[in-house]
Each structure stands twice: as structure tokens, then as C-alpha cells.
Amino acid sequence: MLIGILLLLISCNKNDTVSTTDLTFIGLSKSTSTYSGKQAAEYFELLCTFSKTTAGFFPPQVARAYGYVGITGYEAVFNGIPNATSLSNPLNGLGADLLPKADKTKAYNWALAYNAATAEIIRKMFLQALSKINAASLDSLVKSYSNRLSVGEDSNVILRSIQFGKDIAGAIYTYSTTDGGDLSYLDPFQLPYTKPTDSAAWVPTSAIQNPVSPKWGNNRPFLIQNVSTTQPSSPIPFSTGVNSEFYSQALLVNNQVKMNSAEQIEITKYWADDPFNTFTPTGHTFGILSQILQENRASLEKSVIGFAKLSIAENDAFICCWKGKYQYNLIRPVSYIKKYINPAFTTVIGTPPFPAYTSGHSCEMGAGSKIFISLFANENGDYTFTDYSQLKYGLSVRNYTNFNSMADECAKSRLYGGLHYPMDNDKGLQVGRAIGNNVNTIIILPSNIH
Length: 450
Prior knowledge:
This protein is 54% helix and 2% strand. It is built from 16 helices and two strands. By secondary structure, the chain is an all-alpha fold. Strands 1-2 form a two-stranded antiparallel ribbon. It starts with a helix and ends in an 8-residue tail after the last helix.
């Protein structure tokens, strides 16, 4: 057996084509699956806090930050996952030559690599806005895991693993700076921007007079197909005629708000996910994923795969959705209803500062639901769980038996709140689910994971 292993190592040195399965099982490194996924969950929990407490991190900026953190974590450890490959090929603009390579003749501690990579990319995603308190929290977490994971480990393995993780993070950050959203939290309104002034166009609905990130739809997606093949059809033609289809959409919103049940109001507030008050829509979706992974005692292997898939889907969902929003610049229901139907109309919660069509919540949760199904459920989406993620914001828990119905509820919450026309939600779900399907089919990742 020893002779066989030596021959294999010699062969690796000659042709550098050893597979990840070989790396894991020839005894050089422990596989990624031997480490707990709790580490990843704690970093994404910290990311939620950073997003909530950092100025300029509106929903698009948050989704982007999660996106790069997710793919960085995966790239730092995929060499320890049997049959896994780098994301450098499917991801738009991320060539294999841009990423450092692990030395296939030496051992790594993949959890240490993840620790270093994730901490480093989080720092870079909040580069010019990371508060002292948040920086201290990040330093504390990375030090805690570094100390625990280094116990009994060879000093060379420790240094090699940490450096590899930092190198991966540096390369991914360099890649991120060319996507169109670099440092966007410093200028989330992307001024100067001239707002359309026709009757169908968005008008401010709060003290914020400029819409958020009007050029976000021009950003580079992780998957080209998530923008090129998923754009919705045009919204129902604008009209103020009382017999028009558009008027009917607005009237339905007005009547829904008047007839809301206590549970529908609860649902509205549950899915509000307002930036700076909560962890935003993306943060809520990641919170659900993190909770389910922990309930299943997922390894670092399954966690990084799950977070990577959701990261790609969420980032691209906001790019795609924002592209449509500013293509059509559609007036919000509250503005239309007050002018043409009911001057006394009020929404259940505040209307966010950007156009209506399509719904961002519907799009991102539509995408997220497809990732959840790929990880935990059958094609019907059946999965029973309780979402505890909103307890920290003073809300109660909600119970679900199906990921598709959960996404439907999230979308309907925007109708119950008076924030979106039905078509915004329906088309948003359609776009999001198409994006999630793209991620599941184009990104080929190991599925037999625990």
C-alpha cells in the first residue's frame, strides 16, 4: 500500500492532474466534510449584522456582498470535496488563471483555509465602511476559529492553509472590482441620475427622493444566462381608465389592503426585511438556509456548496430584477392609488425607494426557493420546517411545509402590504425561479453531500 501511495505522489508531481478525490483520500488532507458547517453559519450571521449596521448597504449591495463571500468560501475548500471543481469556468469573467492553485503535493486544513478566506473577503466587501465594532467582531471570530482549528495541526499546514485562503480572497476581490458594483455602498443612488417624468414613471414615496441603484442592472452577473434569458415580459400597459387592466391591478391592491386579515398583516411585516432595520431580503433567505443546514448538522462541505449556490442566485436575482425595474420605471401602487383611486390610501409598511416592476422580494425568494429544493427537497418542494430567523427582530416564527409555498407567501406579502401590483409579484417569482433553475443546472456541484 505504501509503495502504491508513493507511486501516486510521484505521478502527481509529473503531470499535476490529480483529481480532488485523490487529494482527499490519499492521506494528504482531511476532506472538507470532516469539518463542521457551524463555522460557515457563524460567518454568514456576522455578515447579516454588518449589512444591517453599515450605511449604503441597500438590498442590491447586500446581495452582492453575500455573493462574493459565498463563492470565496467555496473556492477556498473545494479541493477537499470529492468530484468538486472550481467555479472559475461557469462564472462569467472568472477564468482559472485568475485564481491561485493549491499545491497538490502538500497537505491543507480546509477549515483554516475557509476561515482565512471568508474573513478576508468580508473585510474587502466592506472595505471603506467597516466600523470599528464590526471589525473587532470579525477579528474575534477569525481568531477563535484559527486557534481551535490549529490545535494539533502541523505548523506548516497551518501557515499554508491560511495563506491559501487569503490568496483566494484576494483573487476573488480583484475579480469583484470589475463587475460594476465595486464600492457601490459609497454611492448607492448612483448619482447623477435623471428620473423619468411621464405619468407612468416612479415618483418618490418617502423622504428619499432618488431611487436606489438605477444602474445596477448593468452589473456583471455571475451567470450570463441569469440576465439574458430570464427578463420578464413588459408590464400591463399603463392607463388611468377605470375599465383598464392596469386600473384593475391598482384597485385590487387598494381593496386587498382594506380587507387584510390579521395574519396577512403579520405576513407583511414578517417578510418586510427593511434594510438597516433588519437583515434585508437576502439576509432573511440566507438565515433560513443557515438554520436548515444547522438543523441537519451539515458539514462544511454541504454548507459551502449550499451557500455558494444561493450566493450566485441572490446576486444575479438583484441584477436581473433591477435591470427590469429601471427599464420600465413603473409607478408604485401607493402613488397611483392616491392620485386616481383613493387619496386616503396608506400602505401597511413603508414603500422602498425604487420602481415597482418587478418585485425584488419575489425575485430573490423565487431564486432562493429553487436552491433550497435542490439541497433539501423533492421536485415538489416538500419540506417541513419552522423559520426562527425573525425572532431577533421581535417577530414570531412561521411554519412551512413546502419551499414553493413559502416563496408564494413572500411574494403575496408585498400585495398585502400595498407595495406591489399582482403582476410585479407574479413576474418576479417567474424570473427568480428561472434564475434558481439556471444555477442548479449550469453550476455542476457534487450532490451526494451531508
